[in-house]
Amino acid sequence: MRRIGVLSAPLADDPQSQARNAAFLQGLGELGWRVGRNLEINYRWGGIDAKRHTYAAELLALAPEAILAVGASVVGPLLAATRTLPVVFTQVTDPVGSGFVASLARPGGNATGFTLFEFGISAKWIALLKEIAPRVTRALVLLDPATATGFGQLGAIQSAAHSLGVEISPINIRDRAEIEPAVAAVVRGLNDGLIVLPGPQTVIHRELIITVAARHRLPAVYPYPYYVSDGGLICYGPNELEQYGQAAGYVDRILKGEKPADLPVQAPTKYELVINLKTAKALGLDIPPTLLARADEVIE
Question: Partner of 122 for a Cys bridge, out of 59, 82, 153, 283, CB 3.0 to 4.6 A?
Answer without folding.
Answer: 153
